[in-house]
Amino acid sequence: xxxxxxxTFEFAEFFDHRDIWYAILSHTWDAKEVSFVDMKRGLxxxxxxxYFKKIRGACRQAANDGxxxxxxxxxxxxxxxxxxxxxxxxxxxRWYSDAKICYAYxxxxxxxxxxxxxxxxxxxRWFTRGWTLQELLAPKKIVFYSxxxxxxxxxxxxxxxxxxxxxxxxxxxxxxDIASFSVAERMSWAAHRVTTRQxxxxxxxxxLFDVNMxxxxxxxxRAFIRLEEEIIxxxxxxxxxxxxxxxxxxxxxxxxxxxxxxxxxxRxxxxxQDKTGTSRPYSMTNKGxxxxxxxxxxxxxxxxxxLLDCCTAGGSxxxxxxxxxxxxxEGFQAxxxxxxxxxxxxxxxxxxxxVRCRELYAMQSRDYDVTAELFVRQTAYLSYPVVNGRGxxxxxxxxxxxxxxxxxxxxxxxxxxxxxxxxxxxxxxxxGNGDGNLxxxxxxxxxxxxxxxxxxxxxxxxxxxxxxxTSQFGISVHVCESYDENSDGDTIGxxxxxxxxxITEVEVRHQFETLRGEPQTELIPVSxxxxxxFEQDSDALYNVTYExxxxxxxxx
Length: 556
Description:
Strand content: 25-35%
Helix content: 10-25%
Radius of gyration: 28 Å
Largest sheet: 7 strands, mixed
């Protein structure tokens, strides 16, 4: 490691830096930074360059804090040496972690006051660059400085504000053990960050996942795929597969994302551990990623929901949609057969591809139909066109202070089984942007779509809201009562009809036991509100959403 003497501006080489007390600089690069070559031309020349003041400021602050050495990436790395550059990038997270203090220099911030809503601090470029992510997470102590090297405050002081700016979990800013967060969660922290060179969006994340790999500038987007391949060599975290493509991207793909931006909806995803605590190994082969997965029959021929060993922030189990490769049009039209599904379970060479990559599915249970050894191609083309029946509308199920979404189950045209334990009562519900679960309204639907079950966390009171759509009048909402069901839990005589207004008020029967153990029934007034939302975000899954929320109308 090459360090800069804060008094003489001369370099000192250390084979083992761990016993050296040094400060380290974090900043965003400008067009004409002072390089290692500039410094070797002599101190008078380096001092004449306009951006030497950044180095001088870092050295002055380090000297004031009692340090003899400081590390500045622009001048302490000889970028003309590919070997040295590779070593530095692979070691950088550790160097920032081992530094006694990190100076975060925000060259676009001239204010000295605390970071307010529209302050320069909140809008600093430092929070948008790929390289500064590890520089935020790795150091034990960070102090922020303005353009004129005026101290603004520490990472500890601004922790909540930084979490709001970056979307990084507040707990991750408190701990140095970021490995406790899922791969998807860590990837989401980089989802909105950018780098000048395409390859650097992968290279800047090496330390976050504790992996090393060779640098191959010129490989473009392949660098991020290589990063993921390195991660799965030492990790069995399925959340690396829990990503969604963006508008304009291909609707088909492999199990690996092509950019950290595809993890923008993956905040809060956690690892699921089964009862046995065992994990299934997987590896990259010339036939694709070889993996053993639990599968549920899909809604289209040769399609399957593959259950991932990870969960949403709300506790739902995540799944992705896969489709078999190499099927002709005749096979596609023939429809799904139980025999073909059973054959998949015993085959060792089935190749699949991910379809509908813009969607993750939140499953209500871990029930599955079969476990199969699969090969999932990273790049492939289907032999028939992908038919995507997803419409441009969806119900968004939102929690209220009174009622939280408990589960969602599927409606059928003539009857509806209300209990999710039954096989035909399961529903794959589209996982949205973190502020609600999205339930798709298919293009051709003219019936009940789903029933959302909201539950009061304290009383366990359940409100069951049937959600439907008809081309005649649009949405239809019905709040289930006990008299809507027969003894089998099937609904009876519930017809689609237009809502009288956007708020439905009903009384729901709540049965409970008193403190003496006596059964008692009371009627609880609740309201179900449906609001129409037009989605303006270019990355939104739907153009229109119907936001459904349940409120308790009892007086306080």
